[in-house]
Specification:
heterotrimer; A alpha/beta; B alpha/beta; C alpha/beta; B: alpha/beta; four-stranded parallel sheet; globular; disordered C terminus; C: alpha/beta; six-stranded parallel sheet; four-stranded mixed sheet; 12 strands; NagB/RpiA_transferase-like (chain C); FTHF_cligase-like_sf (chain C); LUD domain-containing protein (chain C); LUD_dom (chain C); Cys_rich_dom (chain B)
Chain lengths: ~550, ~260, ~250
């Protein structure tokens, strides 16, 4: 479909419907900026140890199963193009998905924001008289705070994923997309279980197998009692042409929730679409290897509407916007929605590896979170904690290398920084922070060759001006110095290169005319080839 | 060949030895080096911090300076992976942001002749053994932008392995970022510090006398940390690829540029 | 409350949620991308697909070897057998199970001489009843060698999904002609009946949620055994994973 065709579908007769940011109630924003939150996390030795160990383990697993795929880069190319296709044709594909799901006996609901999704799910749950609902780990329901909404309505939510259960029992927040309890070690998890599980063996060890066994016993009865009840899930993929939903998991809790209850409600972001069933051949190869570092995850369930005599006899699909349309509005940033939630970018990120997920303040942490969260919530104020997220990266690019759908996270980070700076520049009176002033000053100097040359040469040996007020005359490094020297030493550079070069030029010219001329202060070596002529292609002229 | 040197603003001011070594090396190989004093900076700091509008005149100045040489020089060399990456990847971006299609085109023409040092040596000058002598143990940090934006690959290691007397040892977790990231090192100084702390520890663990890289900024970060945390002058030192390649039996590398102490 | 927290997403009066979301998306996408819009035909399909030479040309025996190796990699116990010896191999896989649930459509030969109470699922067994059963025996629709994946369709041969989920031991009988090399071929076969309930199983239930240490056996069957029925020149009657069996 052509771009023109798409634009025609905007009804010009009505006030244009604007894309909207996520509900403020969403779990997409922390209470303070990344640098401050990171500082606390960095000071937690146990957390650092847990993260280092876990991310190193999973990175190595991923690398080894990706290496055995000879067509990995080609799969990434296909995954990326499929996601672009979905983005470019989202309205048509959404309508196709709705038609397919409805034809298969499901009911489709549309939720503009977190509140609307919460209302729909709560209503469906209460209408069915359910007091307890079981949940499969789902990023979308975490994002919209569905557990809290249901609790408010008197419905108890039981998280069935082991890590989500750990987080829930500890009254904690998830810190990783795939392994929400990555910040906890086995000893901590044993303590949490001892506190929260009534029938647990008090002699239980912290062996992961024993702890997993305790979770199995704890949840078993709840699963088996679910037959007249309601379960809530998300979905990894929603196939437009068949209406098939795909849930990828490891433990079997997903299968329990997708199979045993009478009613299933799936809350799915509008970007989760895959055009055709056959396209799963791409994503079911990319996701498990990127995510858990397995050739295939233990369990994948594919279901289409309602199947008579097998599984839930009532199926509701809630399609969620909640800020996704706002992400789509930025052509340079919209591919953040291509994310398939594998978390490979978290595991490989040197920032995430050290700070963990909580420092990002959002359901979506790590590099992908740093581009997704601020776009979903919007950043209207320089004090907004999400305004700090695009800067929470050294732009090393490791995330882009591992992304299975080739989201160029570093470029989007820089783009979002520019967007934030532009926004401040345009808002009267806001463009005068320390950085703004420094960057404006440096920019002016660095675009004035004469002034720059004079400044560098007159600065002389840097040691003379460091530390001190004159540091403002050193254009290239000016804003770096104070934060820098808290942690590291600085070199003693001596004479700048351009001063040395000028002296050498003068010296070699003099040597040519008058052999045995005196050496320059720092004894520049005469060039060994082609010496004697002025090698400066263009002289900017001395100030 | 006639080669125009763009030492980068950081090298010009903070680590001028790197630029001097680049001159020595290229001249020793029989090439002519020119330096245009009108040059300032590639604009990477502005661009990566989001100040595209402030970067634009810097980019324009860069393009003006080097465009005027295009007819007269065979190549432009930058002893920095990230600055060369900025010229190649970000100058067009800044031009587009300014809606300046002409600048975008001119910038692309300059970028097409711009090389990072190891690219220039291996791809353009077709040399891997530059006749250097460096009887020390070194470990190589690939630096993120050389590795992931420029994709220089094994070029620096091939150059290093051809150096007489050198021993190249493995750097644990070599492809992890050192934590510099330009203004990241200040805006997120605690995280940056955690990263460079680990990098410095890995350098020490490698047992090398020197950690070598193709980017002075990363080296300043790693070297500064090594000096601060690991026994000052007896710690492994950070050294630029150009400095090793410039070193010969006749004129061996002399460590200069002592390290400033804590700037309060 | 902080200033950034005040604005709630606007809703347009008189518009349904569906209309509004679609309108929002259309408005958003009206801002064009720098590069071209991607059509479905633009998607590069250079990766190995179902009709690739490697998929169709690889010797079936080798493909089965890969399947066995990949299944065993994730601690599935594999019994390689032939048609005449199938019942014995199945009995061995079900050894010790006092009760076994089976779907309606499995071949009668599979359970001949089985020393266990056999329950043929009629769709009425509750989850609690299934929990009392020791094991489940099913067939399989497709097996994907490269990933060690068993694909079950909700049908007469593989059963409804609950019966392969609740019992603690799952024995899957795989026939040689069901084995494909790669995921694309597996998806192609599933795509012939996309509306059916499908379950893809790759090893026993597992979790890596505690320190990313893989632990077998959480909520699904903790023991997964495969009986692979092969044509002539069988690899032998012995289970190929001796030490792991138990």
């Amino acid at each position: 479909m052509s771009r023109e065709g798409r634009m025609d579908t905007v009804d010009l007769g009505m006030p244009a419907v604007r894309p909207q940011h996520a509900s403020p109630s969403s779990h997409l924003r922390g209470t303070r900026g990344f640098p401050a939150a990171a500082r606390d996390a960095l000071g937690d030795e146990v957390l650092r140890g847990n993260l280092t160990y876990a991310t190193a383990t999973i990175q190595a697993k991923r690398a080894s199963v990706v290496r055995e795929m000879r067509d990995w880069q080609k799969l990434r190319d296909a995954g990326s193009a499929l996601k672009w296709h979905v983005t470019d044709h989202l309205p048509e594909l959404l309508e196709q998905l709705e038609a397919s799901v409805t034809a298969a006996g499901g009911t489709v609901h549309w939720a503009r924001d977190a509140e609307e999704a919460g209302e729909i799910v709560t209503r469906l749950t209460l209408e069915r008289g359910a007091q307890d609902v079981l949940k499969v780990k789902s990023m979308a329901t975490q994002e919209i705070g569905l557990n809290e909404t249901l609790a408010h309505a008197g419905v108890r939510v039981i998280e069935s994923d082991l890590a989500e259960l750990i987080v829930q029992l500890a009254g904690d927040a998830p810190s990783h997309i795939l392994v929400p309890a990555i910040h906890r070690n086995r000893a901590q998890i044993r303590e949490i279980f001892l506190q929260a599980m009534p029938d647990i063996d008090p002699e239980i060890t912290d062996d992961p197998a024993a702890l997993a066994g305790a979770a199995r016993r704890f949840l078993r009865e709840r699963f088996l009692d679910m037959e007249q009840s309601v379960a809530i899930s998300g979905a990894n993929f929603a196939v437009a042409d068949t209406g098939t939903l795909v849930v990828v998991e490891s433990e079997g809790n997903g299968r329990m929730c997708l199979t045993l209850p009478r009613t299933l409600i799936s809350v799915v972001g509008i970007e989760k679409i895959v055009p055709s069933f056959q396209d799963l051949e791409v994503f079911l190869q990319l996701l498990p290897r990127s995510s858990t570092g397995e050739r295939m995850n233990p369990y994948t369930t594919l279901f289409t509407g309602v199947a008579e005599g097998d599984g839930p006899q009532e199926f509701h699909l809630v399609l969620l916007d909640n800020g996704r349309s706002a992400v789509l509005e930025d052509p340079e940033g919209r591919s953040a929605l291509h994310c398939i939630r594998c978390s490979a970018c978290l595991n490989v990120c040197p920032v995430y590896q050290r700070t963990g997920g909580h420092a990002y303040g959002s359901t979506y942490p790590g590099p992908i979170g740093a581009i997704l969260s601020p776009q979903m919530t919007g950043v209207s104020d320089p004090e907004d904690p999400n305004a700090t997220l695009p800067y929470a990266s050294s732009l090393c690019g490791a995330c882009y290398d591992v992304c299975p759908v080739k989201i160029d996270i570093p470029s989007i980070l820089v783009h979002l920084r520019a967007k934030e700076v532009d926004q401040r520049r345009e808002a009267r009176g806001q463009f005068r922070g320390t950085w703004d002033v420094a960057m404006k000053g440096a920019g002016r100097l660095m675009s004035s060759p004469r002034a720059y040359d004079a400044a560098v040469r007159s600065a002389g040996p840097l040691s003379r001006v460091l530390p001190g007020e004159n540091i403002g005359r050193l254009p290239g490094v000016l804003p770096l110095v104070p934060g820098w020297t808290d942690h590291r030493d600085l070199p003693h550079p001596g004479q700048s290169f351009r001063s040395w070069w000028a002296a050498r030029e003068k010296h070699s010219a003099a040597t040519d005319q008058q052999p045995g001329a005196r050496d320059e202060p720092e004894q520049p070596k005469a060039p060994r080839s082609g010496s004697g002529t002025d090698r400066t292609a263009q002289n900017g002229g001395e100030a | 060949m006639r080669i125009s040197l763009m030492p980068t603003c950081l090298v010009d001011v903070m680590t001028p030895d790197v630029a001097r070594s680049t001159v020595m090396l290229l001249e020793r190989l029989g090439h002519e080096v020119v330096f245009d004093r009108r040059q300032t900076c590639c604009g990477q700091m502005h661009t990566n911090t989001g100040y595209y509008k402030e970067a634009a005149p810097v980019v324009r100045s860069f393009v003006d300076t080097f465009e005027s040489q295009l007819e007269e020089v065979d190549a432009i060399v930058m002893p920095s992976g990230s600055c060369a990456g900025c010229v190649r990847e970000q100058h067009p971006l800044v031009a587009r942001h300014e809606g300046d299609a002409e600048l975008e085109e001119r910038a692309a023409a300059v970028a097409a002749k711009t090389y990072e040092l190891s690219e220039l040596l291996v791809d353009v000058l077709k040399v891997t053994d530059v006749g250097a002598y460096f009887p020390h143990t070194v470990t190589y940090h690939p630096t993120c932008h050389s590795m992931r934006i420029l994709k220089v690959g094994p070029r620096p290691l091939r150059l290093l392995r051809a150096v007489e007397g050198i021993e190249v040892v493995n750097l644990p977790q070599s492809d992890t970022c050192c934590g510099f990231g330009g203004t990241f090192s200040v805006k997120n100084d605690a995280t940056s510090d955690a990263m460079v702390t680990d990098k410095a520890a890995n350098v020490v663990a490698s047992g090398a006398e020197y950690v070598v890289a193709g980017d002075a900024s990363c080296l300043m970060n790693i070297g500064g940390k090594l000096h601060r945390e690991h026994a000052g002058d007896s710690a492994p030192r950070a050294i630029h690829l150009a400095q090793i390649l410039a070193s010969t039996r006749e004129e061996p590398f002399v460590p200069s540029g002592t390290i400033l102490g804590r700037a309060s | 409350m902080s200033t950034w927290d005040d604005r709630r997403p606007a809703r347009t009066p008189g518009m349904s949620a569906k209309e509004e979301i679609l309108a929002r998306v259309r408005t958003a996408l009206a801002a064009p991308r720098r590069d071209d819009v991607t059509t479905y035909a633009d998607v590069p399909r250079a990766y190995q697909r179902a009709d690739d030479k490697q998929e169709t040309g690889t010797d079936p025996g080798k493909v089965r070897d890969v399947l066995v190796q990949r299944l065993e990699d994730y601690t599935t116990v594999v019994h390689r057998t032939t048609e005449p010896a199938a019942a014995a191999a199945i009995a061995q896989a079900l050894d010790g199970a006092g009760s076994v649930v089976v779907p309606r459509g499995i071949p009668g030969e599979w359970t001949q001489g089985l020393d266990a109470q056999l329950l043929t699922d009629d769709g009425t067994l509750s989850a609690h009843q299934l929990d009392e059963v020791d094991a489940v025996l099913t067939g399989c629709h497709t097996a994907i060698a490269l990933t060690g994946t068993l694909v079950l369709r909700g049908d007469e041969l593989c059963g409804r999904r609950a019966i392969t989920l609740v019992p603690d031991r799952h024995v899957v009988v795989v026939r040689a002609e069901q084995v494909v090399l790669g995921v694309p071929k597996g998806i192609e076969r599933m795509g012939e009946d996309p509306g059916a309930p499908w379950t893809m199983i790759s090893g026993p239930s597992a979790t890596s949620d505690i320190e990313l240490d893989r632990v077998e056996g959480v909520h699904g069957p903790r023991r997964l055994e495969v009986v692979l029925i092969e044509p002539e020149q069988p690899a032998g009657d012995e289970p190929s994973t001796k030490e792991k069996q138990g």
